[in-house]
Amino acid sequence: MSTEPLTWFVHDEPPRADALVVDQGLEAANAAAAPLSDVQPLACFAHSPPGNVVAGAVGRTWGVCCELQQLWVEPKLRRNGIASQLVRLFEERATVRGCRVFYLETFSFQAPAFYRNLGYESALELRGSPCGIVKHVMTKRIGASVD
């Protein structure tokens, strides 16, 4: 390691080039430590008759785990069962891939009650955001337990 003293910088808006160095360094370290090439994207979309995307579920699978990263339904179409159908289709496809552990993050102003109705449980609640907002990490297990 270099014996030269380090210079420290703190940024409210990090320079893109500096952030890219950190991203690439972390990506290289992670790739050396784990089979990240096995991570597979997964998505389900609902299209309107003209072919516009009006809802979608986006995430990924890795081993027996499936992460739902985004779920969105066009506001005028909400409360019609579209989100539930998307999550079901997403989970079904992940199950075909061998997934039994499902997880996601949602805020209290988003949809924790919706996910609870689909069988998810809050595994972690992070408090401290403004206006009493809570971040929920939620999980759902299907079938045999996973060690």
What this model shows, in words?
The protein is an alpha+beta fold. The chain has one domain (39-141): 3-Layer(aba) Sandwich (Aminopeptidase). It is 27% helix and 32% strand. It contains three helices and six strands; from the N terminus they run αβββαβαββ. It has helices at residues 16-33, 82-96, 112-117; strands at 40-47, 53-62, 65-73, 101-107, 121-126, 135-141. Strands 1-2-3-4-6-5 form a six-stranded mixed sheet. The longest helix has 18 residues, at 16-33. The chain is globular, with a radius of gyration of 19 Å.
Task: Sum this structure up briefly.
The chain is an alpha+beta fold and 147 residues long.
What is the fold's blueprint, element by element?
Elements: H1 16-33, E1 40-47, E2 53-62, E3 65-73, H2 82-96, E4 101-107, H3 112-117, E5 121-126, E6 135-141
Parallel strand pairs: 3-4
Antiparallel strand pairs: 1-2, 2-3, 4-6, 5-6
Proportion in helices: 25-40%
* Quaternary organisation: single chain
CATH superfamily: Gcn5-related N-acetyltransferase (GNAT)
End-to-end distance = 39 Å
Tell me, briefly, the overall form: globular
The percent range for strand residues is: 25-35%
CATH topology: Aminopeptidase
Number of helices: 3
Instruction: List the secondary-structure elements in sequence, H or E.
Output: HEEEHEHEE
Biggest sheet character: 6 strands, mixed
If you average the pLDDT, what whole number results? 92
